[in-house]
Amino acid sequence: MGFALANAGAFAQSGSGAARPEVPPPHGLVAGSSSVGSETNDAIITARARAALLGTADLDSNDVHITTNRGVVTLTGTVSDDAQKNRAAQSIQELDGVTSVTNALHVGKTSH
């Protein structure tokens, strides 16, 4: 009984009256944090951007890497010519949630 009283502060009451331990959220997932939604949206934008690249005709996107931060999509990697570089950015620019595209693709020999 003394144990339960000594550790009462480590438990939160749920609506059913049962005590449950307070567990901190995983790293980066703090309630009320604005970055949680941003990270989720960024992951969705990145997935949509990858799909857009894969669906773009005359574009070999095997060596294209995509990162997204608060709606800004950055393309890195290598494509075989300037036309593919421009096509990659254009295919992503109009996606929902994309605020801008940073096209850091290099033109050269791809590894595929």
Describe the fold and architecture.
The chain is of the alpha/beta class and 112 residues long. It has a domain at 33-107: Fe-S cluster assembly (FSCA) (GMP Synthetase, Chain A, domain 3, 2-Layer Sandwich). It is 34% helix and 23% strand. It has 3 helices and 6 strands, in the order H-E-E-H-E-E-H-E-E. It has helices at 2-6, 34-54, 82-93, and strands at 11-13, 19-21, 64-69, 72-79, 100-103, 106-107. The strands form 2 sheets. Strands 3, 4, 5 and 6 form a 4-stranded mixed sheet that branches. The radius of gyration is 23 Å and the shape is elongated. The termini are far apart.
Give me the secondary-structure topology.
Blueprint: H1 2-6, E1 11-13, E2 19-21, H2 34-54, E3 64-69, E4 72-79, H3 82-93, E5 100-103, E6 106-107
Number of strands: 6
Question: pLDDT under 50 segments (min length 5)?
Answer: 1-14, 25-34
The fold-level CATH name of the domain at 33-107 is GMP Synthetase, Chain A, domain 3
Instruction: Give the percentage of residues in beta strands.
Output: 15-25%
- Class by alpha and beta content: alpha/beta
Shape: elongated
**Per CATH, which architecture of the domain at 33-107?**
2-Layer Sandwich
Largest sheet: 4 strands, mixed
Individual helix count: 3
How do the helices and strands follow one another from N- to C-terminus? Answer: HEEHEEHEE
**Structural Rg:** 23 Å
The helix content, as a percent range, equals 25-40%
CATH homologous superfamily designation of the domain at 33-107: Fe-S cluster assembly (FSCA)
Q: Could you give the distance between the termini?
A: 67 Å
